[in-house]
Amino acid sequence: MQSAELHHIGRATNRVDGRLKVTGQAKYAAEYAATDLLYGVIVSSTIASGHIRKLYIDRARTVPGVVEIFTHENRGKAARLDRSWRDEVAPPGHPFRPLNSDRIIFDGQPIALVVADSYEAARDAASLIHADYRVDAYCTELERKRSEAYDPPEKRSGIPAPPEPRGDAETAFSQAPHRFSGDYRINAEHHNPMEMFGTTCVYEGDGKLTIYEKTQGPQASQSYVSSVFGLKGSDARVINRYVGGAFGSGLRPQQQLFLAVMASIELKRSVRVTLTRTQMFHIGYRPDTYQTVSLATDGNGQLTSIMHDAVAATSHQEDYQEAVVNWSGMMYHCDNVKLTYALAKLNTATPCDMRAPGAAVGITALECAMDELSYEVGIDPLELRKVNFASKDENTGKMFTSKALLDCYRRGAAAIGWSRRKPQPRSMRAGHELVGLGMATGTWDAFLMKAAAKARLTADGKLEVSTAASDIGTGTWTILAQIGADALGLPIESVTPNIGDSLLPESPVEGGSWTAASNGSAVQAACDAVRQTLFKHAKKMANSPLADSGFEEVEFHAGRIGRKDDPGRSLSIAEVMHAADLDEIVEDGKVSPNARQMRKYVSYTHSAVFAEVRVDEELGIVRIPRIVCAAAAGRILNPKTARSQILGGVVMGIGMALHEEAMTDHRLGKIMNHDFAEYHVPAHADIADIEVIFVDEQDDKVSPLGVKGLGEIGIVGTAAAVANAIFHATGTRVRDFPITIDKLIAA
Ligand code: MOS
Questions:
Q1: Residue 42 C-alpha to ligand 1 middle, in angstroms?
Q2: What pLDDT score was predicted for residue 444?
Q3: Which of 71, 135, 394, 412 is least surrounded, with the fewest CB atoms within 10 Å of its CB?
């Protein structure tokens, strides 16, 4: 009972699924077995735009073990209207439909699915399929499409348009004593979770399907499949118990889900379809952007003008949108602000949310420009941020539910040793390396989404908490166990979370950093209802020591309900339930955004990122010996998994700063570096010391738990802090991300 003595919330707690993960028992979607399972391998197009004239599949058919080859000519029946194909987070437009026709709209589009009784046979047969294409004109180069950028006519649900201009930013800019304007480019990045997309669709007979699917939302995938195939609600069940990362790519159903289910329905067999690492580069991506940021200040460094214009890539078929420039209107106090955001259509798959979508790129440009401005003004970059601190959201005029950003600046600066920084670029050295210190501000939304949960307490003192959330590596399993354990005063081992199943209580996709706040609060609400019920029964017991107690006067501790002021007056959960003749108590919990509060308040997570870099002067090699990320994220449920989230975000930020870049041969319209050999995500050798600081932040409005969420804030500001440190080290400003050696040496 040792662990029941302490509170679990706020305590660094090992992942409750950790043992399953490291022993390989935590199965991913493509690891589930099924009787007589068939294997599907996708054949991808080799052109970016055009039509299939003829598909040569005869040789593939002769491969022993091949059961069927699906193409646009024999694809199974599916819905006809776009709206039936629109998933929970779909942008406006025409959602992609695999094998829908002979038309090719992006490189790597599926043109056939080979289904065989072994993966090897399917892969062998797939390699024998060839297509004869008629190629149409295409463009995959954002620069060439910038002149055709447009304001998306229909907004994507949940994505705010840039705010209306305020003041007169142009005049203020032209009249300011200090100003800076710069053009930034951030290349497209691709999601590279360790687990590749996979679906194992188990054909249960009687038309029922159990679908093991890599997704960030089992219910989102369930309703997609139901609407695309016209299934009854109970025909398909989607399970994603464990997910090996996703970073946003699992927010939308990917091509393998449709193909596995289609083949399963057509063949009345269980079918698994997985994507290869290369095929992972042909699904959504973080769109490349061109951004111009213009900033001006008065003589004291007070901002008098902010202008931020962004052009981002989308596809021809959908208007993918994210909030890129909006942050520039709210992060600093300024009366004259003008922000624009436009899209340009490329012949690619539709871009897709990727960790801190919009903020990760928009704030990179803004925070680099702030750094450049600090040299113009002749003021310390950190000081410039502090001088311009915004105490309310100036885009909306609303108050922050909390904003402990100044504490982030203070603690982060102390941890990196900001005071040793000499203002002049190229003024710090260690041996043959130039040393630089840079920093940036970060912010991300703190959402509370509508979510539901169920709590089930059994007479043996075991608690099960369920909600259709997902754990994409974020620690959801663990925090839900912690919440349940504290609510009922149980050891964490007595709590079984149940997530990753479309049959569980309603949940949004796991995204936006909202799961801890939303599903966590729903679980807490369900547990609270169990406490109330249990207490009611405890009071009613004959000779109850709690008969005259109010609910506020008791606590749940070590498997007992007792008076706070007199712990001796207590009853065990088991005796209460036994006396009431109950085997179990089951209660529901719900949360939804507080509309009334949202009229006055906004909620954001804040951070300050500090980077130290070393740059080899001759070779241009950048090392990052140290990054400090100080975050204000409300209440921290689990310092251990919370820290891991920030570490992961910072690592991805380092990837954005130095490594990650989709290289497309625009003559062919093809991504060329579609594997881990050539698309470089940071490896251990690229990562040194990352220090994570959580500053204290009490927030009783952001969510019932006081939690803000941490999945995304770690990436925001990191690339800018690194870029700014590189400038401080070298005096060379690279505005084209990633900052690779060639750019640094050529500049
Ligand atoms: Mo996140 S990009 O909402 O998974």
A1: 26
A2: 98
A3: 135
351 lines ligand 1 (CB under 6 A): no
pLDDT tens for 686-716 read 999 999 999 999 999 999 999 999 999 999 9
**End-to-end distance of the chain based on CA atoms, in angstroms?**
63
| Best probe residue, ligand 1, of 157, 324, 353 (max atoms within 8 Å of C-beta) | 353
Q: Which residues pair with 28 in a beta bridge?
A: none
Which atom of ligand 1 sits closest to the CA of residue 357?
A: 2
Tens of pLDDT, residue by residue over 643-658, are: 999 999 999 999 999 9
Residue 357 CA, ligand 1 centroid: distance in Å: 7
* pLDDT of 6: 66
511 CB under 6 A from ligand 1?
Answer: yes
What's phi and psi for 722, nearest 5 deg? Answer: -65, -45
For the chain, list the domains and their CATH numbers: 4-15+449-592 (3.30.365.10), 32-137+191-282 (3.90.1170.50), 141-190+285-380 (3.30.365.10)
Report the nearest atom of ligand 1 relative to the CA of 513.
3
741: β partners = none
Expressed in angstroms and rounded, the spacing between residue 602 Cα and the centre of ligand 1 is: 20
Name the residues annotated as catalytic: 712
Ligand 1 centroid from CA 461, angstroms = 36
385 ligand 1 Cβ < 6 A: no
Tell me which long-range contacts 667-670 makes (C-beta under 8 A, separation of at least 24). Answer: 668/48, 668/107, 669/47, 669/48, 669/49, 669/107, 669/138, 669/139, 669/140, 669/347, 670/46, 670/48, 670/107, 670/108, 670/140
251 lines ligand 1 (CB under 6 A): yes
For the cut 90, the answer to whether the pLDDT of residue 68 exceeds it is yes
For residue range 198-214, list pLDDT tens digits in order: 999 999 988 899 999 99
Number of DSSP helices (H) and strands (E) in the chain, helices first: 18, 32
388-433 pLDDT per residue, tens: 999 999 999 999 999 999 999 999 999 999 999 999 999 999 999 9
Residue among 446, 491, 465 nearest 635 (CA): 446
Check if 473 has its Cβ closer than 6 Å to any atom of ligand 1: no
DSSP type of residue 163: P
> 747 pLDDT exceeds 90?
no
Ligand 1 pocket residue status of 248, Cβ below 6 Å: yes
pTM given for the model: 0.97
pLDDT at res. 3: 41
Residue 746's pLDDT is 82
